[in-house]
Amino acid sequence: MAWRGARSATGRAMVGRPAEREAIGRLLEAVREGLSGVLVLVGEAGIGKTRLLDHAAAEATDVTLTRLVGVEAERPLGYGALHRLLRPHLHRASRLPARQQDALNGAFGLTDTSRPDRYLVGLATLTLLSDAASELPMLCLIDDVHWLDPESAATLAFVARRLHADSLGLIFAARDGLDDRGLFDALPSLRVGGLPATDAREVLARAAAGHLDPAVADRIVTGTGGNPLALVELVAHLGAEQLAGVAPLPEPLPVSRLLEEHFRKSVAGLPPDTRTLLLLMAAAPTDDMAVVRHAAGALGLPAGAAAAAVEAGVLEHGPGAGFRHPLIRSSVYAAASGDDRRRIHAALEAASDPARVPDRRAWHRAEAVLGTDDAAAADLEAASDRARARGGYSAQALFLSKAAELTTEPARRAERYLGAAQAHLASGDHAAVNPLLDLALPALDRPSARARALRIRASAELFDTRNDRVPAMMLDAVAELGDADPRMTRELLYEAMHAAVIAQNTLHRTTLAEVAKAVIGASHDQDAPDWSPDRLIEGLALRTAYGYENSVPVIQEALAGLRASAELHDMASPLSIIVSLAAGDVWDIDAYAGIVGRLAAENRSQGALYSLTLSLTVQAYTEIWNGRLATADALLAEADDYAAAIGLATQGDLNKALLYAWMGKESEVRAIVATMDAVAAAYGLGMLRQLALHARCILALGMARYDEALRHALPAYEEDFPSEGNLMLPLLVEAAVRAGDRPTAALALQRLERRARLAGTPWALGLLARCRALTEEGADAEKCYRESIDLLGSVPLAAEHARSRLLFGEWLRRRKRRAEARDHLRAAYESFAAWGAALFAERARIELLATGEKARRRVPETRSDLTPQERHVALLAASGLTNAEIASRLFITTSTVEFHLNKVFRKLGITSRRRIAAALGGPTAG
């Protein structure tokens, strides 16, 4: 086999592993060709992951090589591992865009900037590495991923998910079951198992100095499962008689977890000074040998203390020798007694410069304590504040948890546990939240602290998508708080109302009306900033509790205030959802599109990818209503891309039901809405069911299945939830009229009459005029159709405008006014066909044929061959953005933008970005 002669970076020939080496070879080939590659090697301790990284390093000729090893002792230091990885490239940081540079400097504690967003840190890392790789392809090897600090691990996982055409490869090695947050689950992975028997016997034969009995070899191979480290270690420590089959083998053989015990025994036989030095090295940072030397001197260790460990094969040979295998490091630390660990940490504390590494010093001081120590706890709390300022929420949580353990006074201890729970929530480690809250709650003696604890617990539920449980939990927190903190009360009620309007009729222990009345009954902040959502929430609460008429003035005033505000901010619950519900309920497309567009831009500039996924999804609906289906598709694809980048579980095309309904993709719509209904029921997302009904209704109208459309529209009328309860009214009127159900049409029109006149917007009045036309005859109907077309043509609602023209054209044709009908039907057909609204285009085409005009079906054009990412890059390029601006907007690199544009040019048959808009045949993205 060609692979068998390959050698690792250590110079030893590697045995076997053809599949793994082939995968590494393909990755390196892609990197050399200007693309990118990611591979996660997963397996038990000692299975050979590090040797495969050595092989990759040996094969990485004409490639810049960067290596990083996770160290258990450094896990408390947020972004510490990332700093080690990027340190050779930090001279390039001045080339980063300003926000990325600030984020990276903040993460590394180099500046006093406000806490950086983790995804801006990730983008800065991606930009920095790809910049280096643009000069010479780069391969990054990251070993022992399970020991990286959580912030560094999350950043590298984010980078791995954003790579495309960057001449950059990442190979990770992680132990089985230790990535408990699933950061790397979505990346290409390869499970590394034991060697096959033939290869395992070859490893044994190479390692054995004397005779190896075949039966003994078979026993060792079977007993170790082909674990290479176990094979080599066994041969090194078994006697010649045992290998020859004369003396019995130990029972059981030291494999898997027993390997650690094997290493412990290997270290236990070394001189005391050597063992102390090894423990010191295991507890110390790998990048600060000066601290190790200083601490060793303070402990009185002789200069030659390491010699015995090198001779025994525990440490490597050479200057600055480290542990021969990472498993030895962890086993040394795990085997030490509590007294020995405290003595070592005390020495490291004394050797650490409080000005240069205050966090490490605080951690060593804490680890040196037996019992409680309020001074050490205070140092840790200060370290937690520094970690939070860097965006190191996992480190903040760890520091505060340890500080709580060292705290004497119960109430202060509880407050620190509470802070740790909040930090875990911010880091995304929701499983760690409730155990800490359970420790904190019994001793919390302030109403505000108890309310905060309940709020954190509710937020953990929300992030775990149990949305229906959140409102009642927030109301519990409000009750606990009483009058102690009006501002927190308003924030709690905002989050409760936000969750309630999404849950709708799936709520636990409360109702939407109860939540709404609590919001209305609370005191209001007269000095709230312009961007405050308080009035918007109050308007939605009035709508729910006391009827539509009471809500309209408040909602319109709130939307006007947000539009006029110089700044917009998301809170704990993203504002885009609330804006969409409120603006949709009063049919204000200008406020809807304007505010959500600004929120998306703000989320993008801040690197707030979770909020950005929501604002882009909401923004896509405005594009659908404006007939820009390709742009909506690109926005939804971008939102899905970011959801995947931050590790959110997605449900495929869950948000594309309405888009696909307009496109006439019947099978896709039916599959998606079935998933939407299931997800809505499982996670308490009643609003999702309403959106599914809307998509079903549009699809049925496009297919002229009016009875079916009526069936889907009626629940929205009966339940009358904000936004969808109103947006579905004109669909219900149309479906009822065409299905012959005049009483239902009259009831829906009556409600629409009242509400549209209260809203008073062109959207509302244009839909009202269209619905009146559907129920009128003669001159009154014609007048209403023309009014509808005029009103809807004055706002960015091209799809609704075209629908009115289609309905008017149908009405004119049935009255034998074919020439007039042709004008409207032709305009509707050309619009629908250009957008890809297939069913409505076909309806218009058939009507147009009936007037005597020929209208051929349009053949799908070349642009449909573009992937969503290519289409989005093309639309942004057509709008005038530079490659660098597109890269910053989409959280990718300029080389990836260039890669996509080259494919766009090739597929569209053009050579200039100036011709993209014409080749796409549609409007550009804004």
UniProtKB/TrEMBL annotation:
<dbReference type="GO" id="GO:0005524">
    <property type="term" value="F:ATP binding"/>
</dbReference>
<dbReference type="InterPro" id="IPR041664">
    <property type="entry name" value="AAA_16"/>
</dbReference>
<dbReference type="GO" id="GO:0006355">
    <property type="term" value="P:regulation of DNA-templated transcription"/>
</dbReference>
<feature type="domain" description="HTH luxR-type">
    <location>
        <begin position="859"/>
        <end position="924"/>
    </location>
</feature>
<dbReference type="InterPro" id="IPR016032">
    <property type="entry name" value="Sig_transdc_resp-reg_C-effctor"/>
</dbReference>
<keyword id="KW-0067">ATP-binding</keyword>
<dbReference type="Pfam" id="PF13191">
    <property type="entry name" value="AAA_16"/>
</dbReference>
<dbReference type="GO" id="GO:0003677">
    <property type="term" value="F:DNA binding"/>
</dbReference>
<protein>
    <submittedName>
        <fullName>Regulatory protein, luxR family</fullName>
    </submittedName>
</protein>
<dbReference type="InterPro" id="IPR000792">
    <property type="entry name" value="Tscrpt_reg_LuxR_C"/>
</dbReference>
<dbReference type="GO" id="GO:0004016">
    <property type="term" value="F:adenylate cyclase activity"/>
</dbReference>
<dbReference type="InterPro" id="IPR027417">
    <property type="entry name" value="P-loop_NTPase"/>
</dbReference>
<dbReference type="GO" id="GO:0005737">
    <property type="term" value="C:cytoplasm"/>
</dbReference>
<keyword id="KW-0547">Nucleotide-binding</keyword>
<dbReference type="InterPro" id="IPR036388">
    <property type="entry name" value="WH-like_DNA-bd_sf"/>
</dbReference>
<dbReference type="Pfam" id="PF00196">
    <property type="entry name" value="GerE"/>
</dbReference>
